Amino acid sequence: MSSWPHDWEGQPDRSAYTTRDSIDYIWYGLGLPADARDFLEVNLPEEDEKALPSSFKIGHLAQASICLSALSAALFHSQVNQSCEPRRISVPLKHAAVEFRSEHHYLLDGKPRMSSWGPLGGLHKTADGHVRVHDNFLNHRKAACDLLGLDVETVTREEFAQKILQWKALELEKAGMDSGAVIFALRSYQEWEESAPGKHIMKGYSFPVRVHRTGPQVGIPRSVAAHIPRNADRLLRGVRVLELSRVIAAPVAGKTLAAHGADILWVTSPNLPSLPDSDIDVSRGKRTTQLDLDTAEGVKALHALAQGADVFLQSYRPGSLAARGFSARELAESNPGIIYASLSAWDDGYGEGPWSSNRGFDSMVQNASGMNVSEADHFGDPAIPSRVLPVQVLDHAAGYLLATGINAALYRRATEGGSWEVSVSLAGVMKYLRSLEQYAGRDGFECEPLGDILQYLETRETDFGNLSAVKHSASVEGKEPGWDVMPKKLGSDEAKWL
């Protein structure tokens, strides 16, 4: 059983990569200095061991991506302070693995979270295979029901499944894309690689994080801006991040930047549904305000905030914010030096490819790209056509890699000037994870238990009650990460910078 086809000429084989190899590869690929590694020490307890029951090297990617996010923040801090003070960054493997599932581990007043999965979604049989339906958001659930001729208010799961059984998988996938529903056919690796989006993504992506300068050197490097203090208590203290995001990847990026001291202003829409049970975990460290971009006042307020931001972080469907006047080009014109960071499902960073503007979520990328079929094959039960991974690995890895790319852009803006764009996609992360190869045969499903999860939690008061949630797994000598702001009701803060 091969997880990486032999006919992919020129594709990288990272099957022998250690966790440190991945850290080095991405660090140098982002154009970050080699000599910084002389004073930024990396400590990886339990590195290269198995952490979670999967044929995929999830622990490897968790430890590497979280370490990179802290390492790159430390680099920016050293640039701000013009200092090469030695600093150790530690990321224990088991803690990193727990943090890759943080949205499922928190307790509110001692009680576990309720499931955010919708009543109709998941894997369903079709006339010729299977599809996976995403219905966590009510608008997506309604779109799927409308497509199938069902009433979203009264439909049962059995009725929903019977309607899907009348469709062919690829035809339903296409109809879903045309109607606003989120439905993807279950594919094997071979089926994915033979499809148009699979060919584009698997042959086109070369690196999981895209960082590039979009304008010439301008003005004074932002590292000396008045709102970014020297000798601060945390690595990113004072950095202003305007976040417009939805679950889970981009919010993880914002939460990670917040852990290192960045001022995150999370902007949500009063017109869109939320997932409060998921939002609680990823909203730690963030102030929250609401703006209605369907109004002139809301657009004006967001433009005013963008004028004072260091980073504009967004994960809406590609092109949707640009259509409202918030493209990378327009924001760079009004605020030279801004970093525009985007998270998407399928976009390659160039807006190309047959699915580049399509909606997508971690579970959909796993499903469509062959990961779930391969995981089931490795598990070895022929009765199971699809096996989901034990964590939302693409979401979490994408979030930490996006934070890494933002930190790299902050550093390079300080040293080179210019405005910058950063982009990460779930599909690009999927490709990198696959390039690490899977454990052979049925190996990987047996691993040491993570132990008592409570040891990784901290308890704080919030607007919703006492929250016990996973602490950040990266430790930074002398600049320990942590969250100053605890989850609060959406729209609790004014739309202004501190």
Automatic annotation (TrEMBL):
InterPro entries: CoA-transferase_III, CoA-Trfase_fam_III, CoA-Trfase_III_dom_1_sf. GO terms for molecular function: catalytic activity. SUPFAM superfamilies: CoA-transferase family III (CaiB/BaiF) (SSF89796). It holds the Pfam family CoA_transf_3. It comes from the Eukaryota. PANTHER family: BLR3030 PROTEIN, SUCCINYL-COA--D-CITRAMALATE COA-TRANSFERASE. Belongs to the CoA-transferase III family. This is CoA-transferase family III.
